[in-house]
Predict the structure.
Amino acid sequence: MTLTAPSKLTFQQKLENYAELAIKIGVGLKPGQRLLIGADVENAELVRLVAQKAYDAGARLVEAHWEDDFLTLARLKNAPEESLTEAVHVQTFALNDVAEHEDAVLWMRSTDPDLLKDIDPSRVNKAQTAMMKARAPYYGKVMVNALNWCIIAPPSKAWAQRIFPHLSPDEALEQMWDASFKIVRADVENPLEAWAQHNARLRKVREYLTQKQYSALEFKGGGTDLSVGLPEKHVWGGGSHHTTGNNAGLEFTANIPTEEVWTLPHRERVNGVARASKPLSYSGVLITDIEVHFEDGRIVSAKASKGQEVLEQMIATDEGSHRLGEVALVPHSSPISQSGLLFYNTLYDENAASHIAIGRAYRHNLEGGVEMPLEDFVTLGGNDSLVHVDWMIGSSEIDVTGVLPGGSREAVMVKGEWAFKV
Amino acid sequence: MTLTAPSKLTFQQKLENYAELAIKIGVGLKPGQRLLIGADVENAELVRLVAQKAYDAGARLVEAHWEDDFLTLARLKNAPEESLTEAVHVQTFALNDVAEHEDAVLWMRSTDPDLLKDIDPSRVNKAQTAMMKARAPYYGKVMVNALNWCIIAPPSKAWAQRIFPHLSPDEALEQMWDASFKIVRADVENPLEAWAQHNARLRKVREYLTQKQYSALEFKGGGTDLSVGLPEKHVWGGGSHHTTGNNAGLEFTANIPTEEVWTLPHRERVNGVARASKPLSYSGVLITDIEVHFEDGRIVSAKASKGQEVLEQMIATDEGSHRLGEVALVPHSSPISQSGLLFYNTLYDENAASHIAIGRAYRHNLEGGVEMPLEDFVTLGGNDSLVHVDWMIGSSEIDVTGVLPGGSREAVMVKGEWAFKV
């Protein structure tokens, strides 16, 4: 069923819709809140639109924290090796201050997916690890939904060129905007209504799956043959969620676009091989043809045709980065997948295909997980790490089977599509 | 004497010179230092150039803290009144963190000088006061030269339009760049040498004036008739200075351009009337035709033909904003003055004309002033305040007379030009 037929909206109207979605569906701004917008300098026009929408929605204070690919690259190229363990001061503060005050936060991520391809991977890893460590207070709040946060990924020139390498820079950017507007449902007359319906459908799917309480999911196809154990009392997430903490009860949608439902893998019950169905951009480096073997939840070998060193260093971050923190299902018929485009960006690509993530798990993916001490969460099968990195294993070739508590099996996905109706 | 004849440098070469000057003459970056660049989003290209020059000069880490006129204006227009006393979080941190670590800092100030002209002055004042209070740790370090800092003011579109209202936006910007390159001596083959000579000359002038130890300066002309008492052991500043503190001894030039020499007025010995020779842009509002009366160092009346409310609120900030913190001499033949342009920006306009500043005084303008407690500095005639605001009283009409310790008088400037040779 088509919700609302795509209409002949102008670019500016679609951009307005996008900004409105970011504030109303994404961060779900509460009147009187402070909003931090983290953005690339290139996104200035959209930041301004979003800031105005935020004030219109009653924001108390809108601040932007800007970043710039050139400066990131210049540092990684030029800074003395020993200085790379120093986290960037202002950026670190910006995040942890949001966490401390439980303010609203919107990230616009438009980094060139292959920005750091010529940088020594050990330098990239050093800077990345320092950054993740310094931001621990922020991620701590994110993992328990104590903040209303949202990530969007508006087009940028360098990124558009990666997606459409045969077009001119301007044409590539135009094509990418066009694709993005469709994917985030900003090209329709009433995008808020479209999102309400979309989130309602995701809620039905996650409620169905939570009620099933599969003890494991088995992924087969496209080189993947993986059993992912699920802990007892796991909870599926998807679409919009509600904050906990001091601002409890705010409805927000952490990713725009979002097409996935996801839950908690058991950190000790993952076995088999996972082969990536799409490249992964991590820390500005593209990693292609990832193949990872798990034994009793732990990665025992990992290879890639490109970026293997970055992959290995990412996995070596800590014990938790050897284990899964998320397993997610996305039908192959999702709008992103149907666009036929490869975005080299997790926000888009993870919402085009079923995926797994190594590292830190979301506490709300376990009943009572938000309130319990971290040790208890880990004992019950949850995972913790400095990192959280998704990569895609889904495609039109993948079958997903659910193992019921009694041991019987039923189809969850066949050839990448849902095998049930909600 | 012409130092170096202006050459046929390309725009890009002049921009490179400008960036080089900012790092080598301006902040005088020490290898291994962290540099914070505060800039407008519109300055991205120059920020990138400067960042590369900084790494070339051995910077450990270059961070940018970006601002955007639109966001400033949107806040002042839209935010709830009571929220304006909240200082912008990330901006405040960026400055005070630089102060805490005594890092290098470069400000690029390209704000539209009339940005906030339609905002209720009491709202502007509320936000401005909160900002100044929150940044007190930073200004504390600046006033004792504990940081190597520099302000430059690269052109921006909106600002160029104010200066050249009859040109197209692109032409105005081009004209402004052209004028700026000349004024900052970036249009010559060897700008570093030109600046070395310029700073050497300013040093001679300030040493001459310090040695004179005038007990007062008398300004007459253009509606101004003002006697500014100078404390015993006052010291003239001008050109480059050296840091104190943990990084003691770094040579830096706090303003590019700089044409002034300045010293400490006695906070209780200023009498008469000061009439501004140029408009002042303060907090994004243009204040024109300022006329201020002093009695025993204190402002007893202030008026302006435009922006009077902002002027009054600025003066009302605290006791120290009723008194002078700086008196500065600039010959009318300075390159900025000779450009015939009015920039509506203190960095340019204060270096085109002799000026005074109300508010906080520089501690290094008194012998031993950096080391002594603030109370002693104030007892000896120094001033303290949340604010420091310069405005121009110099012109081709102004005569400046120095009163020698014995009571005799001699000419310091006649019709805006030096009456002595160094």
Observations:
- The CA atoms of residues 363 and 373 of chain A lie 10 Å apart.
- Residues 11-183 of chain A form a domain with the Thermophilic metalloprotease-like fold (CATH 3.40.1830.10).
- The first helix of chain A runs from residue 11 to 27.
- Chain A has two domains: 11-183, 213-238+258-418.
